[in-house]
Specification:
It is a single chain. This protein is α+β, with helices and mostly antiparallel strands. 22% of the residues lie in helices and 33% in strands. It has a 6-stranded antiparallel β-barrel with strand order 6-15-19-17-16-20. Strands 7-14-12-9 form a 4-stranded antiparallel sheet, with no helix packed on it. A 4-stranded antiparallel sheet has the order 11-10-8-13. A hairpin with a 4-residue loop joins strand 22 and strand 23. Helix 3 packs antiparallel against helix 4. The chain is elongated, with a radius of gyration of 45 Å. The two termini are 58 Å apart.
């Protein structure tokens, strides 16, 4: 090498170091400068979202066309990155908002009290149901007009029967009462004999009760000391006849049920509830029961018993205990149960703010200057026209509660508008025109950097997917210069 070439080499190296220092200093002075620029998808008319253009300029209304940038796909609970506009975002002027009736509300997280309404069915209290059974074989002689569904009074006569096998027991009771009365009249005051006689009368009375005699007729025999030819059945309480199985001349056996009577002064209401709502019905919680067509509300209390599962519907049967002094509630009546529920702090929005498709739920978030952004949200419980938002919204955000269907129409028009100007696609490998529908049907397409490319054959598609950055620099392989380090894939006949 010649001696005079060394100064030139030193000069070139010095210039390179100088330029490197300038570049590094510029980067250090701007540490917050963005490294990635937003890619503009298209331009839109701010007054007419259906009017779009691939180039900037003025809209027909005279306003400047606004750019729409690429955005990531929004999943449930995510939001757009700062500075990016979500796909489907629309801008609506204040005048147009007033015309279509758009209303917004602020999302807040706070505890709330809701009034829940459950459907219930009246049932008798098992502890207040009386079964009148025969204690001896016999024959029904006479039956009153009482039937199933009749409301009866205590000691009301129901039927008469005869039982030959009960005669000895009746005579024994009458004799025991007679002996006791004679002892008392004779002036005997020895505690021992009187105590034994009283016990005999009590035991004989219990035997008569076991035969099916009422307390009213037992007291009558105690007074007259006469054995009746026919025995009577009386109602033990004020109540409601649930079942009856007596007719004149009916022969019955010991243990047969004559009547089933329910005391309706206190009843149960069995209400259907969802399994996830059992926390709202703790034992002792108070509620109100209303009857259709009546304004009167009856206080109710959740029973101490655990809710029962309905094997048919899978719902829970929550039991409420209700005082029923006027017998307004009858078995099998349908009633409403009104219950106040206090929920823990949660994001609750109006159900009218949601646009649901069955798989997803979307709300429109109101931004500044009339911008409305679609947001996919995840929902939770639903109570009294309110829906809990689990993911997708933050406290303080404004959402549309009225007019969202019209905003959704604008958003869908805007999403469909970008595809209108372009009628076809070019294969980025060979440059040939490709029909989108045919390419999709044959799976000859590939996505790269928020854009979908279509190919005339699978060879071009496979070549593209091996190195997509090579073919997305604004030129196709057919137009690119033939460098030594770029080998074109084989062209297939079309």
């Amino acid at each position: 090498m010649k001696r005079n070439s060394f100064p030139a080499l030193f000069l070139v190296a010095g210039m390179a170091l100088f330029l490197t220092g300038i570049w590094y200093g510029h980067r250090s002075a701007n540490p917050s400068a963005p490294q990635l620029q937003r890619r503009i998808l298209y331009y839109v008319d701010p007054m007419n979202p259906a009017h779009t253009s691939q180039e900037p300029g003025l809209a027909p209304c005279g306003m400047k066309m606004e750019p729409v940038y690429a955005s990531t796909q929004l999943d449930a609970g995510s939001s757009a990155r700062p500075g990016l506009i979500a796909l489907g975002t629309v801008r609506i002027s204040s005048e147009k908002q007033h015309i279509i009736g758009i209303q917004v509300a602020q999302v807040e997280k706070a505890p709330a009290t809701y009034t829940m309404r459950l459907f219930g069915r009246v049932a008798p209290d098992d502890r207040r149901v009386y079964r009148l059974n025969a204690g001896v074989d016999g024959i029904v002689r006479e039956v009153s007009a009482v039937s199933t569904g009749t409301q009866i009074k205590k000691d009301q006569w129901l039927a008469t029967f005869s039982a030959p096998d009960a005669r000895a027991t009746l005579q024994g009771f009458a004799a025991a009462v007679d002996v006791l009365n004679r002892q008392q009249k004779s002036g005997g005051d020895a505690p021992g004999p009187l105590g034994v006689l009283n016990d005999n009368v009590r035991l004989a009375a219990e035997r008569l009760q076991g035969l099916g005699l009422s307390s009213l007729q037992i007291d009558e025999i105690r007074t007259t000391r006469e054995v009746p030819a026919a025995l009577r059945i009386h109602a033990p309480v004020n109540g409601f006849v649930l079942a009856q199985d007596v007719t004149p001349g009916l022969k019955f056996e010991k243990g047969n049920e004559w009547y089933r009577i329910a005391d309706l002064s206190r009843v149960w209401v069995l209400a259907d509830a969802h399994a996830q709502d059992t926390e709202h019905y703790p034992p002792g919680a108070m509620a109100q029961v209303s009857l259709a067509g009546q304004k009167k509300l009856l206080p109710a209390r959740v029973s101490e018993s655990l809710p029962q599962i309905d094997p048919v519907t899978g719902t829970l049967k929550v039991r409420f205990e209700v005082d029923n002094p006027d017998s307004l509630l009858r078995p099998e009546m349908l009633v409403d149960v009104i219950l106040s529920v206090t929920l823990p702090p949660a994001l609750m929005v109006s159900a009218d703010a949601l646009l649901e498709t069955g798989l997803t739920a979307t709300v429109f978030v109101a931004r500044d200057h009339g911008v409305f952004e679609p947001r996919v949200v995840e929902t939770g419980r639903r109570l009294a026209g309110q829906v809990e938002i689990l993911r997708g919204l933050e406290p303080g955000e404004q959402i549309v509660t009225a007019g969202n269907f019209l905003i959704d129409s604008e958003s869908r028009m805007k999403l469909a508008a970008p595809a209108a100007p372009e009628s076809g696609h070019k294969d980025p490998i060979c440059g040939m025109k490709v029909d989108e529908q045919a390419a999709r049907a044959a799976h000859r397409f590939s996505a790269y950097q928020d854009r979908t490319y279509f190919f005339c054959n699978v060879v071009c598609r496979d070549s593209f997917e091996q190195n997509p950055a090579r073919f997305t620099q604004g030129t196709t392989l057919a137009q690119a210069p033939d460098h030594a380090d770029r080998r074109a894939p084989p062209r297939l006949p079309h």
